[in-house]
UniProtKB/TrEMBL annotation:
SUPFAM superfamilies: L domain-like, P-loop containing nucleoside triphosphate hydrolases. Residues 12-96 form the Disease resistance N-terminal domain. Residues 412-481 form the Disease resistance protein winged helix domain. The chain crosses the membrane at residues 731-750. InterPro entries: Apaf_helical, LRR_dom_sf, LRR_R13L4/SHOC2-like, NB-ARC, P-loop_NTPase, Rx_N, WH-like_DNA-bd_sf, WHD_DRP. Gene3D superfamilies: 1.20.5.4130, Helical domain of apoptotic protease-activating factors, P-loop containing nucleotide triphosphate hydrolases, Ribonuclease Inhibitor, Winged helix-like DNA-binding domain superfamily/Winged helix DNA-binding domain. Keywords: ATP-binding, Coiled coil, Membrane, Nucleotide-binding, Plant defense, Repeat, Transmembrane, Transmembrane helix. Residues 172-343 form the NB-ARC domain. It comes from Vitis vinifera (Grape). Residues 35-62 form a coiled coil. Residues 558-754 form the Disease resistance R13L4/SHOC-2-like LRR domain. This is Disease resistance protein RGA3.
Length: 790
């Protein structure tokens, strides 16, 4: 495991050790002293990982062995902490009378369970000893002394000059930004230039800054490289230095702001704030206050990597996002730098390799420049070959550690697999691969941002939008192959037709290939292929022929892999899920999608208190959900197909985020009386032929963002419509497809359309629909495909 990713695992363990739930756990099981000691040990190891990152190219085998031991120990710690969390959830469920606003009354924990307390205390003590021994081993690794400073490397200060003759493919971007500068404004205007690292934001700003029209139009031009420290006093002094061409010196903040206002007074100025990371609007307003002294029509250009925070906090006009260079422009830039126009020295063989290198650089100018310059004056073919993979590695090494975890998980899917953003998000959540930037952020929102970044960096491609904010993507084959190599040895794909499988003990994520496994021998072959591995966290079986997956197969997996977080049995064809499914206390995701034979689920499944995602789509013979489904206290995503006529009772809490109801042909009412899901973001209703009305139960979904209704022939949205329901003031997307009963939209939807959130309405295949009021059409983006009545 990469050192940075291992540091994330250590941080995850520390977060769990610091969680508020420990106050209740310690009252119940008296493990406070052991927890604090373990917390101290993990903190010390996290510090050692910072040094290990600096030494990763030194003493490689020793360091690799040490990191491997640490990885196993941290996973063991995570499992034990997760077991504590499970039993805490179990107590909440078993003490419903003691639940107050989702937490258990402290009086409930006034007793202890000596057996459990002793058992768990020993587990924590054992793990702590293992980690202490690993920490002690660090000093015995005999690694060379570091010859470099271990401090944080700061970005070089940028400057305002660029030679246009050395810039390729950015004329359009330059012209777009200048068009914004040409628009006269009465107040200070801020134009964000957004893009990933190395894409050319600074270069475009330099081209604009030195354009003849810009130089003539603005009386004063200033350039400041901001970087990560958005210190208002420092920035004021730097702006003064840039404006006056001197050194502001050691003056007080009050003297500095007076001097800045004097410099800008009655001047039309252009200020470039390069490489801004600040997302604190308060700090920006503190600086902007002193920049208002300039003349009307003054402009500020901000370059930033953050499209969702910095641009939103500072921008006054729509941001301009830089795209990757085309292959032709990339090749031109690369060859100019690698060959320096020495046409006579070019070798045809090198030109063909150059094209492969350019493809691996993904249209990122900085990466093209770095790789090309490293090859300048080199004509040895084998060195050029080596740079093909180096370019791709540099491209992916720029990804944050959390995104490399996501990419590693994607590598165990087949090449050219179409990933659905919803499914991938569910997998990332199940493995704790998503890091929240602030406490109030949703896991789903953070995961969605991960995928946006991967797409913007051309890791994902061929994006195809689905309803709402969900989409399909693929991974470029070259990146898939590189990710697969980097993911070893924790990730593996098992294929029955391989001659041999190396027995591994540290495999944690497994997918079974789409090649057919013999039903009679399948279980033995899979277990044999996994060797002595017993700490597997992911098992994906959606690519196996259905006859392989049967009850003995599943029972064998459950018995051996107690630490599973993900069990995907999509497209399987067994009749019963074993009662032992409840043994998987760490399970976060269970998918039985498209099982056409299963009729019932064991009630023991309701003991999966950690379960976040349950997918039962297209289980067309499933009669009903178990009676204790309401005990699944952590459920965030539920997708069901059942024959029951009433909606199952679910845990009434803030956990549920996504609800998909598909093919429930007997379902007559949406939710049970009085049920409320105040955190539900997405509701998807499809092919529910007996459903006639959404009201009144839908009124309780107060946080709904996406509503999609399709192929419900009896559904009348006007049924029950009245003025008591003001609509959804948080709705972003509304999709209505094939509703024959739809004549017009109810008032609760029309009132929703007047909110500031609704972005898009899609109405398709509704033959009796008469259309939308003009006022609504002007307020939102609409895609209509319906026949208007004569």
């Amino acid at each position: 495991m990469e050192v940075e990713i291992l540091a994330i695992l250590a941080e995850l363990v520390l977060e769990k050790l610091a969680a508020k739930t420990w106050e209740q756990i310690e009252l119940a099981w008296n493990v406070e002293s052991q927890r604090l000691k373990l917390q101290k040990t993990v903190s010390a190891l996290k510090e050692l990982l910072l040094e290990a990152e600096q030494r990763k190219n030194q003493g490689r085998q020793q360091l690799r062995d040490w990191l491997g031991e640490l990885t196993d120990a941290l996973y063991d710690a995570d499992n034990v902490l997760d077991e504590f969390h499970y039993h805490s959830l179990q107590r909440q469920v078993e003490s419903r009378g003691g639940i107050v606003e989702g937490t258990v009354r402290r009086s409930f924990f006034t007793f202890t369970e000596p057996t459990f307390s002793y058992k768990m205390g020993r587990k924590i003590k054992k793990i702590r000893k293992t980690l202490d021994d690993i920490a002690a081993d660090w000093s015995r690794l005999c690694l060379p002394e570091l010859g470099v400073d271990m401090g944080i490397v700061q970005r070089d200060q940028s400057h305002s000059y660029a030679d246009p003759s050395n810039v390729i493919g950015r004329d359009h971007d330059k012209n777009v930004v200048i068009q914004h500068l040409r628009l006269w404004t009465e107040t200070l205007s801020v134009i964000p230039i957004v893009g990933i690292e190395g894409i050319g934001k600074t270069t475009v700003a330099q081209l604009v800054y030195n354009d003849p029209w810009v130089a003539a139009h603005f009386e004063l031009r200033m350039w400041v490289c901001v970087s990560k420290d958005f210190d208002v006093e420092r920035l004021i002094k730097q702006i003064i230095d840039s404006a006056e061409g001197g050194n502001c010196g050691e003056v007080s903040m009050d003297e500095a702001q007076i001097r800045l206002r004097s410099v800008l007074m009655e001047k039309r100025f252009l200020l470039i704030l390069d490489d801004v990371w600040n997302n604190d609007r308060g700090r920006w307003l503190d600086l902007e206050l002193f920049l208002r002294e300039g003349e009307a029509d003054s402009k500020i250009i901000v370059t930033t990597q953050s499209r969702s925070s910095v641009a939103a906090v500072m921008g006054t006009v729509p941001m301009h996002e830089l795209s990757h260079l085309s292959f032709e422009d990339s090749l031109s830039l690369f060859t100019n730098l690698a060959f320096d126009n020495r046409v006579q020295e070019r070798l045809p063989s090198l030109e063909s390799i150059a094209q492969e290198i350019v493809e691996r650089c993904g249209g990122v100018p900085q990466l093209l420049k770095t790789t090309a310059c490293s090859l300048y004056s080199i004509t040895e073919q084998h060195i050029w070959f080596s740079k093909r993979d180096t370019a791709l590695k540099l491209r992916l090494d720029g990804l944050p550690s959390a995104l490399r975890q996501c990419l590693a998980l994607c590598s165990i899917f087949p090449t050219n697999f179409r990933f659905y953003s919803l499914r991938l998000n569910q997998l990332l959540m199940a493995q704790d691969f998503i890091t929240l930037s602030h406490p109030n952020e949703d896991l789903e929102d953070a995961g969605h941002q991960y995928m946006d970044i991967l797409y913007s960096r051309c890791v994902f491609q061929n994006r195809e939008q689905d309803y709402g904010d969900f989409f399909y993507v693929q991974i470029h084959n070259l990146i898939h192959d590189h990710a697969w190599e980097a993911a070893q040895p924790e990730y593996t794909v098992l294929n029955f037709h391989r001659n041999a499988h190396p027995p591994q003990t540290n495999i944690r994520h497994v997918s079974l290939s789409e090649d057919e496994w013999p039903a009679a021998e399948g279980v033995l072959d899979v277990l044999r292929a996994l060797g002595r591995a017993n700490k597997v966290r992911t098992i994906l079986c959606p690519f196996v022929r259905v006859q392989t997956i049967d009850e003995p197969f599943i029972s064998a997996f459950i018995e051996r892999f107690k630490y599973m977080r993900v069990l995907d049995l999509s497209y399987s064809c067994f009749e019963r899920l074993p009662e032992s499914i409840s043994d998987l206390i760490h399970l976060r995701l269970l998918s039985l999608r498209s099982n056409i034979r299963i009729r019932r689920l064991p009630n023991s499944i309701c003991k999966l208190y950690n379960l976040q995602t349950l997918v039962l789509l297209d289980c067309c013979e499933l009669e009903e959900l178990p009676r204790d489904t309401k005990n699944m206290i952590s459920l965030r995503h539920l997708e069901i197909t059942t024959k029951q006529s009433t909606f199952p009772e679910l845990y009434d809490s803030n956990s549920l985020r996504f609800l998909g109801i598909v093919g429930c042909i007997s379902l007559r009412s949406l939710l049970r009386e009085g049920q409320s899901f105040p955190a539900l973001r997405t509701l998807f209703i499809h092919s529910c032929g007996s459903l006639v009305s959404l009201l009144p139960s839908i009124r309780n979904l107060t946080a709904l963002r996406t509503l999609k209704i399709a192929d419900c022939e009896a559904l009348d949205l006007l049924d029950g419509d009245d003025d008591r329901f003001p609509g959804f003031q948080t709705l972003w997307f509304l999709v209505i497809v094939n509703l024959p009963m739809l004549v017009g939209l109810p008032q609760w939807i029309l009132r929703t359309a007047t909110s500031n959130f609704l972005q898009r309405v899609v109405i398709e295949a509704c033959p009796n629909f008469t259309g939308l009021p003009l006022a609504v059409q002007q307020n939102i983006t609409i895609r209509q495909k319906f026949k208007t009545r004569e």
